[in-house]
Structures are given as C-alpha cells and as structure tokens.
Automatic annotation (TrEMBL), chain A:
Keyword tags: ATP-binding, Nucleotide-binding, Transport
Gene3D superfamilies associated with the record: 2.40.50.100, Nucleic acid-binding proteins, P-loop containing nucleotide triphosphate hydrolases
Protein name as it appears in the record: ABC transporter ATP-binding protein
SUPFAM superfamilies xref list: MOP-like, P-loop containing nucleoside triphosphate hydrolases
Provenance organism: Rubellimicrobium aerolatum
GO molecular function, one term: ATP binding
Keyword check for Ligase: no
Pfam families referenced in this protein's UniProt entry, alphabetically: ABC_tran (PF00005), TOBE_2 (PF08402)
Record family assignment: Belongs to the ABC transporter superfamily.
UniProtKB/TrEMBL annotation, chain B:
Source organism of the structure: Rubellimicrobium aerolatum
Domain of life of the native organism: Bacteria
Compartments where found: Cell membrane
Transmembrane spans: 26-47, 105-126, 138-158, 189-213, 234-256, 297-316
Protein name: Carbohydrate ABC transporter permease
Keywords assigned: Cell membrane, Membrane, Transmembrane, Transmembrane helix, Transport
Family the UniProt entry places it in: Belongs to the binding-protein-dependent transport system permease family.
Amino acid sequence: MANIQLRNVTKTYGAVNVIKGIDLEIRRGEFMVFVGPSGCGKSTLLRLISGLESISTGDLYFDGERVNNVLPSKRGIAMVFQSYALYPHMTVYDNMAFGMKLGGSNKADMDARVRRAAQMLQIDHLLDRLPKQLSGGQRQRVAIGRAIVRDPRVFLFDEPLSNLDAALRVQTRLEIAKLHHDMRDVTMIYVTHDQVEAMTLADRICVLRDGLVEQVGTPTELYDHPNSVFVAGFIGSPKMNFLDGDFARAHGCATLGIRSEHIDLVPQGAGIWQGQVIHAEDLGSDNYLFVEIGSKEPLIVRQPGKVAVPEGATVSLQPRPGMLHRFDETGRPVQAPLAAE
Amino acid sequence: MTTTITAATERAMARETGLQQQRVRAAFWFLAPMLLMLFFVAAWPLFRSIMFSFTDADANNIFSGGAEWVGFENYLTWRVRENGDIRWRGVLADPDWWNAVWNTVRFAIISVGLETVLGLLVALMLNAEFKGRGLVRAAILIPWAIPTIVSARMWGWMLNDQYGIINSMLLSVGLIDSPIAWTARPDTAMIAVLIVDIWKTTPFMALLMLAGLQMIPRDMYESAKIDGIHPVKVFFRVTLPLLKPALMVAVIFRLLDALRIFDLIWVLTPRSEGTVTMSVISFQNIREFGDYAEGSAQSSLLFLIILIFVGLYIWLGRVDLTGERS
C-alpha cells in the first residue's frame, strides 16, 4: 500500500561505510527483491527501511512522508526474519496474536485476523502447537502468518527461505508468490542472495554490490540487458560464459558474455569457436556441455533434450546473433555497434 | 538368499551391540576415578556422619571406637518424670537448633531473593551495548573473586561501631544519632550478614543470568520492536520466560550455597544468636563441645533439609514449566 523512496541513503558503522548512497523507488504493491552477494548491504538496506537501524544520511519516504525518525512500529511494516524469530514459549496462536494482544486490540477482531491468516497459510490446525513441534516449513509459515496479522503496508522478508531444504524452498517460494497475488496492494521487499528466488519472485530486482545499486529492473531486463559484467554474472544459472583476450577483441570489447543457451552446436568448421567436450552434465531436460575452446574457463553450452555428445568429441560452436553481451574494461556494456555483426 | 541376508544382518547387529558395549565399558573406565574420589570425599564422610548421629560418640570415645548405638536419641527422645511431666530431649527439641534453622532459612530466602533480583538488573544492564562493557563485566566480578574470609573481615571493619566507615558516613549525613554495632547487635547482625553476602554474590548471579540473556536471539527483540511492544512488557513476556532455565539453575546453585553458609557468619558475627546457622551450630557442637553425636545429627538434618528444599524447588519448577501455557 505504500510507495517507498530512498534518496541518497547511507549507513556507516563507525568508520565502515556499509550503504554508500542509494537512490531507489519502490512502487506501491510491487514485489521488489534485493539481491547480491553476502556483504553487499542488502540486509542492512532492509533494516534501514524497517527502522531497526537508523539511517546515517539521506531520506526515506513512505508515501511521500519522511520516516527517517519514525519508530518501526509506526511505519506500518511487518517483517519475516531469516530465523523466523518465533517465541519458543508461546503457541502458534499466541505468536501470531502477540503484537495485537499487547497492542490492546479488540479481542474478536484479533481472533478473526489470526484465524484468517492461519487459513490463508493452511496452518489453522497448528494453532495450539509450540514452535518446537513444527517443521521448518511450518515455522516459516507461522512467521509469515504473524506478519499478515499485522495487516502491514509493507512486507519485509529477510532471506526467509535460507533455513529450508531445497524442496521446501521451492514450495515456500511458490506460497510467497501466491501471497503476493492475494495481497496485491501490499508492497513487498525481499532480501536474498539466491538469484533464482529473485528471478522467480520479483516484479523488479535491485542488484546490490558493495553498498551501491548495480542495476534495477524486471527479471527479464536484468537477464537480457545486464548493464555490467557483475549483473551479467550474478543473474542466471548456469553463470553466463565470459570470454576475454582475443575472443573478446574479435567482437570489439574487453569482456564478451554469452549465455549457455545462446550457443548452438553447428557442423564441423561452421562455428566461430571449436573445442573439445571435457565434461557433460545430463540434467534430464537439458545437457550442459563443458567445451574447452582455449578460454580461461571452459565454455558451458546448454543443449535441450538428449543430445548425445560423447566426452572428448570436438565440436564447433556458434553464438546466436544479437545474444552476445559486450563489456568494456570497466565492466560496462559497450554501446557502439559492431560492424561485423 | 534370504537366509544369508538374515545371517548378515544378525552379524551386523551383533557387531553393533558389541560396539555399544565397548562404549559403555570405556565410559565406565573414564568415570571410575571420579566415582572412586566421590566415594571417599563425599559418600563415605556422609555415611559416617549419618552413622555417628545414631551413636553417643563424643571426643572421648570417637577415636577408640567405643561409641554405642543409641538409635534416635540424638534427634528426639523423651523421659517421663516422676511427677508425670514428659521431658523432651534431642536436637529436634532444642530451641537453639530451631533458632539456627530459622536463621538459615531466613538468610537463604532473603539473600537468594535479593541476589536474583539485583543480579538480573545488573545482567540486563551488562547485556546492553555500551562502551567499556568488557571492563565493567570484569570489574563486577571482583567481589566474587575476593575470598569470603577477606571480604568478611573487610566488611567487619567497615561496619565497626568505633572506627567503621559506614557508621561514620551514616552519622555525617544524619541518618543515625549514635554508632551502631552492626555485627554485634542481635537485631542488626543478620542485616550485616545479608549486606555482605548480597554484595559478594550478586555478581555471580549476574554473570550466570547474563549468559542466559545472551542466548536469547536478537531478532526476538526486533520482532517485538516492529510490533511496537513496550519494553517492560517485552521483558515480562519474552525475556523472562526465555531466561527461566538459566534463572532456575542460578537460583538452585545459590540456594544450595546459602543453606549451608558457614564462613561468612563465622567470621563476621561469631557467636551471635541472631545469625547462627545450621552449619555453624553443628560445627560448634563438634569442634568446640566435642559432641560428635549431636553435631552429626544436626549436619544430617541439614543435609535432609537441603535435600527437601532442592527437591521441592525442582518439583515446583517442573510443575510451572508445564503450566506456563495457561
């Protein structure tokens, strides 16, 4: 329900500059994901928005109102913590009702809200249990339920899936996506280091690096038009192939990037790169071929279906036209068109 | 095919129980020296002392082995006098003993109660982040580190009615008109003992509880902050319940200590009726009057009382644990 604006926000701890000046607008009802490697400041940024940490310089606005000095409880936010932060001595019901109960809310209203949230998340049969009697996934849902009960303007998620196993992570990810659909007007901000979570959940992704915004955009924008080597390498799995030296120079850049699915196997001699298959990974739906073409790291080529290419075979490769990403020495995209293409 | 599998499984199981047995055997040998030690320094003396309490042992016959079995005579016995009156004798009929019991229980409850509250306050303070916290944490342990005899003497001087600094300070601010002989007067002796014990032991309580406080995840508090819950409510609804296990252990440690207090009282307020405790009276009987029988009966009773207190405490504590959801 809130539009959030950050204007030149910084955060310093003593002499350490964690957030180095961030300008960002998060739109009403948007699902924004902060993603980046550990130590990039994404969690700190979330805590600045929540009010758990104070902003060193700069301004933070919720719907045009400056909230730098507004208490967390007055910002209309709810937060889901990485560790869930459930009170171990309270039942699921009490955990979800705790804030409202001690906030002096109407009892019937509180009960209705807790039960509705529990129903939404299918944890209504667990209301009498203690957190220790729940599985990881159930705890996570209780934590989300507790946030829903607060009926917030802004939902904050701090790496909520990182304590779950892989299968549960996918399932809970889906539930969070569903939650976003059900609560269309609630702004959600989600912190993760996992680019798959970012890609699957986000309306827009904000890639952070060393306390600065590297790029903001929809998952497709970031995937198709990364505006730095860093974003190109961070978004997408398997990682984008990077070639430098003569491979890059041939295309008029310092670093040449090409995604694994944009390289085709072509008849011998027809491609611009040749090399030996040193390893193949069969994922069932796809085959990943690792091809040694003389670059620093082997080129990863993604082949849909069951293409039987034996290890040791020599193959010829051709990148798809228009799918090459060219970057200069500073890691920024090269704008000048390439004559050869 | 099936038989070979079963045989293999059986062999594996046999190997497993063999392993388990080996572990148990190893554990026993690791524990054996300590069990032996405990037997000689704890179990045997305790057993001897309980045995003595059923004999007429005294300084004259205890080493010659001439002590005779007298049953419960040291605890309680009665004689009907010629005029028909019944005369009770034994420790349980001795008003001095009951005075000591009352002193001990009073001391234990008041000192442990106040130490818990004060220790918790100190722990909460030390749990907050501020500059020089490490230094304060170390400094606060000093009273605990000073040997009891030394601190008892030190406080004895400070509380002295002639040259003590405390009387001088109280006089100069006009709280009292004439010096008080804190440790000598029966009505203030217990207060003096309590002051010194609380001063000495609060740091220990504080550190035990600080360890408990630091086990509470920070995001519990952050979650409460986002909910906008008043810090006092957070303390009673979140901190205290989560601290309870640590608190229970700290209290039981202190309770055990307080119920058998001896050194502080012996040095600070010797022979004061207002402070004499079960340990002191038992010690006096054995060492000063050579009355091994009565002293042993008293120390056996002390052992029993501590056992009851601790048992009661654990039992009540457990009841509370299951009842906390109501």
